[in-house]
């Protein structure tokens, strides 16, 4: 049931991504709007999948990588949809939908194992708090990453004086920069709380806040990198282009630290 | 029934002439026109680029004179002076070209800026005014509704109106790619010429409110500032003004640039990295081109803007061909409807003639036979059935063929074969005309359904 819901969700996200891609290539905003509608349907189904997950195994084993990746994808979509209500960001669906598809698809492939996996630290609430907060942080920073990529492409195009198709309305540089700022304001505190709750979780299992595991070292390094980026953005009044570059670099590093290191070790 | 269009537009008459003919309220003029015997239906379209009367007439020459006289006397053509004779300021289209003109105007293919969207609204307004004062009957209604439908198709299926083709609109379009909105933005204008004014109007139309104007001649800056609710500042303060501006628009005379890299480096630092859009309309350029290399500064000079405008115009031209094909298709559909309408009198005459013969023969026979009421009804029903079945095939064929150009030959043949043009007897008159619904082609939709006006 949970796997089937994830498969359906992934299919909807994929459909949204394809619609958005075709809409971008053909410069058809109606297709981009349709992609957003399909993305909303996917997010609703994703929510149902998590509700089913919760009912099936209480508390749900979110600490497993597939479940946490799925949660991150879902929160990312929700974060994007909330931003969409305030700014002209429809075209960004072309990046959000494929990213959400990858998350949901990965979960759909790997979840059968996790449903039967032993839940580490089930007695404590720290693991759940850690996963929820860290996923929320990662999701918002993922949206900042996408906005950063579009910003850099748009900046390059405007500097090179290359016109775009009139019907195609890409987000303005101002809107993309605002996404970056909002994502950092929300994402960094969530990430910080995620690191702290992670330490509490480790302490609950090993009696120490810091065991020196590779995952911990890289996560801490990623958090420190984001700390520097936030300071550069809000204290040193970094320009929008540098902020976009930083968002792309920061998220790539974070993704490697949180997921890549986990997969490699 | 002929369709006639007489008028003047941006190609036939200059603005100073057109503005003298502009009509605010077309209703009284239309009432006068349709009161004339030679004008059956009429519509008056008056915009800044055209004043046109579309008329439906059965007396072409008289209608033509009436419309020319209308422009000459009613709208003030008598007062027009100049080298060009008044008659040469007017254009005239008849039937096919006239209908085509209506379709092309609605689709914005005849506009000064091809693809501009305002004309459709203006035409709908003119149609509503004509309809409400009773000047627009079923045929012109159908013509305009078909033209509106064609215009909607053009807008939906082509990209004709999407990309701006004027330098000012291109600048605004680019600004929209940088800024989300203009309400909270400030523009700095360096210069006070016509180019600056045009670009400023376009930016104000998008919601820009905060405007600073710096000019060598302070009085010019103040005049422009007064007109646009802006603030005039001396040119000497330029360095202090640049950091406050999100949009810098320059068009001033001078051999060397008035703004260089140093000013914008300082501005970007003061603005904490917020972007600046610089539009340099000056020749020679007013802003050092190296400024475009700075992060957060987007500089477009007149050539850049003209290049984008030209590329957009090329795309519009390509789309125009597609739009013309759509217009032609929709016009042919309307032509079919109009031709089918010409079959109506012939079919009506045919039915009337047949009914007259049936009634005459029936009365003659009934006088000789001594039939009770039921038998009389039976015979009457029998004769009606025979007539209907006999007429069914020719009437169906006439309806079908009438929608094509060759249909006129069929109509002519029917009139000869059934002797419809010969005087009818009094019995035929007594039968009365067939109902319009019986003779109209079955697939002709109700004209009110096709367009929201």
Question: How many helices of chain B does DSSP assign?
Answer: 17
What overall geometry of chain A do the principal axes of the alpha carbons give?
globular
Instruction: Write down the overall mean pLDDT of chain B.
Output: 84
Q: Biggest interface, which chains?
A: A-B, 25 and 26 residues
Q: What's the shape of chain B?
A: elongated
How many β-strand stretches of chain A? Answer: 0
The CATH architecture assignment of the largest domain in chain B turns out to be 2-Layer Sandwich
The average pLDDT of chain A is: 84
Domain count of chain B: the total is 3
Question: In a few lines, what is going on in this structure?
Answer:
The complex is a heterodimer of chains A (265) and B (453). Chain A has 265 residues and is mostly helical.
Written overview of the protein:
The complex is a heterodimer of chains A (265) and B (453). With 265 residues, chain A is an all-alpha fold. Chain A folds into two domains: 1-119; 128-265. Chain A has eight helices and no strands. In chain A, α2 packs parallel to α4 (93-116) and α3 packs antiparallel against α4 (93-116). Chain B has three domains: 2-157, Glutamyl-tRNA reductase, N-terminal domain (Beta Polymerase, domain 2, 2-Layer Sandwich); 167-295, Rossmann fold (3-Layer(aba) Sandwich), CATH 3.40.50; 339-444, no CATH class. With 453 residues, chain B is an alpha/beta fold. Chain B contains 17 helices and ten strands. The A-B interface holds A 27, 87-88, 154, 158-159, 161, 163-167, 170, 172-175, 178, 237-243 and B 159, 162-164, 173-174, 176-180, 268, 272-275, 292, 295-296, 298, 300, 304, 307-308, 311-312.
């Amino acid at each position: 049931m949970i796997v089937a819901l994830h498969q359906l969700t992934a299919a909807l996200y994929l459909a949204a991504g394809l619609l958005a891609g075709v809409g971008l290539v053909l410069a058809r905003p109606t297709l981009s709007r349709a992609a957003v509608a399909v993305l909303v349907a996917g997010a609703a189904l994703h929510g149902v999948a998590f509700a089913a997950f919760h009912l099936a195994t209480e508390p749900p084993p979110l600490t497993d990588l597939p479940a946490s990746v799925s949660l991150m994808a879902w929160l990312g979509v929700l974060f994007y949809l909330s931003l969409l209500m305030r700014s002209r960001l429809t075209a960004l669906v072309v990046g959000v939908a494929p990213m959400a598809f990858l998350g949901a698809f990965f979960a759909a492939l790997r979840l059968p194992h996790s449903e039967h996996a032993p839940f580490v630290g089930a007695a404590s609430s720290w693991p759940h708090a850690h996963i929820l907060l860290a996923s929320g942080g990662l999701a918002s920073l993922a949206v900042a990453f996408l906005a950063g990529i579009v910003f850099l492409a748009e900046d390059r195009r405007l500097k090179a004086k290359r016109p775009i198709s009139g019907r195609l309305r890409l987000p303005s540089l101002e809107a993309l920069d605002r996404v970056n700022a909002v994502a950092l304001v929300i994402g960094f505190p969530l990430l910080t709380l995620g690191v702290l709750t992670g330490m509490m979780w480790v302490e609950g299992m090993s009696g120490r806040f810091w065991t020196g595991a590779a995952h911990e070292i890289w996560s801490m390094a990623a958090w420190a990198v984001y700390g520097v980026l936030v300071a550069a953005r809000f204290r040193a009044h970094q320009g929008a282009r540098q902020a976009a570059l930083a968002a792309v670099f920061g998220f790539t590093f974070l993704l490697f630290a949180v997921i890549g290191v986990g997969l490699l070790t | 029934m002929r369709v006639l269009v007489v008028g003047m537009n941006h190609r036939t008459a200059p603005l100073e002439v057109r503005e003298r003919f502009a009509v605010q309220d077309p209703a009284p003029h239309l009432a006068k026109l349709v009161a004339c015997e030679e004008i059956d239906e009429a519509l008056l379209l008056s915009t800044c680029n055209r004043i046109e009367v579309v008329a439906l007439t059965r007396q072409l020459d008289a209608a033509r004179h009436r419309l020319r006289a209308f422009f000459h006397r009613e709208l003030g053509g008598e007062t027009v002076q100049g080298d060009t004779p008044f008659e040469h300021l007017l254009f005239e289209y008849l039937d096919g070209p006239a209908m085509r003109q209506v379709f092309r105007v609605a689709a914005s293919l005849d506009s000064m800026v091809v693809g501009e969207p305002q004309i459709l609204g203006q035409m709908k307004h003119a149609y509503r005014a004509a309809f409400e004062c009773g000047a627009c009957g079923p045929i012109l209604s159908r013509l305009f509704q078909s033209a509106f439908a064609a215009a909607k198709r053009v807008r939906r299926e082509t990209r004709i109106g999407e990309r701006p083709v004027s330098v000012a609109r291109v600048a605004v379009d680019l600004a929209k790619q940088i800024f989300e909105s203009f309400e909270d933005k400030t523009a700095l204008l360096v210069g006070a010429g016509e180019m600056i004014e045009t670009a400023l109007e376009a930016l104000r139309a998008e919601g820009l409110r905060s405007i600073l104007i710096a000019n060598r001649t302070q009085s010019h800056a103040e005049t422009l500032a007064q007109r646009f609710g802006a603030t005039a500042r001396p040119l000497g303060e330029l360095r202090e003004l640049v950091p406050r501006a999100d949009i810098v628009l320059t068009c001033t005379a001078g051999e060397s640039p008035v703004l260089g890299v140093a000013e914008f480096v300082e501005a970007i630092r003061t603005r904490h990295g917020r972007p600046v859009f610089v539009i340099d309309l000056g020749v020679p350029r007013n802003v050092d081109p190296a400024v475009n290399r700075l992060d957060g500064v987007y500089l477009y000079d007149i050539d850049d803007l003209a290049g984008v405008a030209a590329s957009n115009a090329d795309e519009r031209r390509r789309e125009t061909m597609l739009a013309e094909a759509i217009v032609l298709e929709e016009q042919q559909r309307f032509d079919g409807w109009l031709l089918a309408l010409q079959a109506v009198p012939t079919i009506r005459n045919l039915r009337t003639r047949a009914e007259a013969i049936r009634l005459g023969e029936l009365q003659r026979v009934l006088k000789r036979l001594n039939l009770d009421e039921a038998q009389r009804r039976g015979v009457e029903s029998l004769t009606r059935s025979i007539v209907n079945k006999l007429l069914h095939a020719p009437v169906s064929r006439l309806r079908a063929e009438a929608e094509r150009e060759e249909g006129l030959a069929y109509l002519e043949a029917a009139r000869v074969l059934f002797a419809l043009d010969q005087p009818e007897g009094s019995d035929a008159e007594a039968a009365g005309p067939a109902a319009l619904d019986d003779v109209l082609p079955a697939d002709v939709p109700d004209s009110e359904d096709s367009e929201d006006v």
